Amino acid sequence: MPRAQLAPVAAVDRRKLATARELADYCGVPLATVYQWSHRGGGPRMIKVGRHLRARWEDIDRWLDEQAIDAA
Fold first, then answer.
1. Name one GO molecular function term (predicted).
2. Is residue 72 assigned to a domain?
């Protein structure tokens, strides 16, 4: 009996997840601030990968857009 062929997975353009250090550097904040965001909330959505913190770049950019202050 022939084995069933798996359908090819659609190619998705995925970007590497941001590390806590990359997030801190990108936002210009201390690394400790990123860990505070993770613990207390208030920062971009974070993901635990094992014992490591990661973030999707899309979530970081979305969160930064939400932080924009409109000039009066």
1. DNA binding
2. no
Domain count, the chain: 1
35, amino acid identity: Y
Rounded to an integer, what distance in angstroms lies between the CA atom of residue 51 and that of residue 29? 21
β-pair partners for 18: 55
pLDDT digits (tens, 9 = 90+) for 52-62: 999 999 999 99
Residue 4 within a domain: no
What's the CA gap between 59 and 56, in Å, rounded? 5
Task: Give every strand in the sheet of 18-19, ordered side by side.
Answer: 18-19, 52-55, 47-49
